[in-house]
Amino acid sequence: MRNAVRGIYRRTGKDDWSYDVVIRGHRFCGSTGCTEKRAAEKWITKFREEKRAAIGQLSGHEPMTFGAASTRWWSERGQHRKDKACLEGYLALLQSRIGMRTMISSIDDNTVSKLVALRRADGVASSTVNRSMTEPLRAILTRAKLWKQVVQEIDWSQHKLKEPEGIVREATAGEERTAFAKLRPDLHPVVKFLLLVGWRRAEACALKWADINFETGFATVVGKGGIVHRRPLPAAAIAVLRGEQGKHPEFVFTYLVRHPNGGRRGDRKPIRPGTLSTAWVRMRDGAGLTLRLHDLRHTTATRVLRATGNLMAASKALGHSKISTTQRYAHMLAEDVRAALDAAAPVVAPVDGVSPEKSPETVQQPAKKALK
Hints:
Elements (H helix, E strand, L loop, with lengths): L7 E3 L6 E7 L2 E6 L5 H19 L10 H11 L7 H15 L10 H12 L5 H21 L26 H10 L5 H10 L3 H5 L6 E2 L4 E5 L5 E5 L2 H9 L10 E3 L11 E3 L2 H15 L7 H14 L2 H8 L4 H4 L3 H14 L29
Antiparallel strand pairs: 1-2, 2-3, 4-5, 5-6, 7-8
């Protein structure tokens, strides 16, 4: 009787076999890509062998394969990043296209060019190509240098695809009213807070009572890139926070469980970024809006800049590490300046004494002096 191969299973409603195995303390999971059980068993057996060989190189300084380098990078860095869910899939794609046994010392500009071309052929956006190919590969090779590995010099600027600039979109008063009218009430506090302070959704969802000092009016936030910020809170935002006190012992913003799959109905659970985004998309589609959740951040920045004209203040409010990142909002201020100049236009134009409200033909010309 043939021994059963462990680590593979078939998800309900799926044709292909999935895997979930632990190899020398490292967990790996995903799809085998095989619809037949016998083929899936062969795949997982080969996969185990490759991973064992790769992990076996992690403790030494001998030349590493890409399988070993990517596995070690995931263990040290990747699994601790906020985007680890997407990153795990990107890493698997890199491993399949580069090859687990490819030596990292052989990865050069030619290799990266081919990877970018293949990924573009998948029909994805330029930003996705950068996030899934060049950026994780660059991170792995950069980390490998610290392990005293031989890595070739690669001109990454030649491989990064140009991405379209994000659209700065400000919410109108009508859109705000519609959004709050259609959005489920238990999510109103966190959305109001985002509009008042301009934080990222992940920052607001991770906010704990221990991070807030009501006496000083400041909150400690771990922002993008793991940078710790001490953010001032306006009076209106503090009022929103006080309204959430007593709902959860640890996290500030919560939601009411309404579906039995989410827990006991009526319980309060911390809002996760994905949960908030899903609820917002449902509201937006149902209300016929085009406003994105991230546009609330743009709205705050634009309003701060319009009210103060202070680009540095807007930069600090958003938690930008560089003022150049905030420069994208400067054109909004320029539009306000233009509107102000139009509003301040003189009744009488400073040229030829012609009023802008009258056409030149209707203006009575001054009488000419008689010539002697």
